[in-house]
Write a structure and sequence with these properties.
single chain, about 80 residues, mainly alpha
Length: about 80
């Protein structure tokens, strides 16, 4: 149950960070900074509440995919 909650939180944060990057008009490699900071924060918080290595990478690929898609979509809607 805890692993599923962590997965869902990472998905929601990925969409939120991507949307924020798009709304702010961030382009290029600079967009990796807020995404990386958010994921590192989530990783540190998950380490405090769990002891397994598996939970550290749970949802990473989905986080990156949703972050990138929501960033591109929100930027395209607002600035193109």
């Amino acid at each position: 149950m805890k692993e599923k909650l962590l997965h869902v939180i990472r998905l929601i944060v990925g969409v939120a960070v991507g949307t924020i990057c798009g709304i702010l008009g961030i382009t290029g490699v600079v967009g990796l900074i807020p995404a990386s900071l958010a994921y590192i924060l989530l990783h540190v918080l998950s380490k405090r509440f769990s002891s397994g290595h598996e939970e550290g990478v749970t949802g990473l690929i989905e986080y990156i995919g949703l972050w990138l898609c929501s960033w591109c979509l929100s930027y395209s809607i607002l600035y193109r």
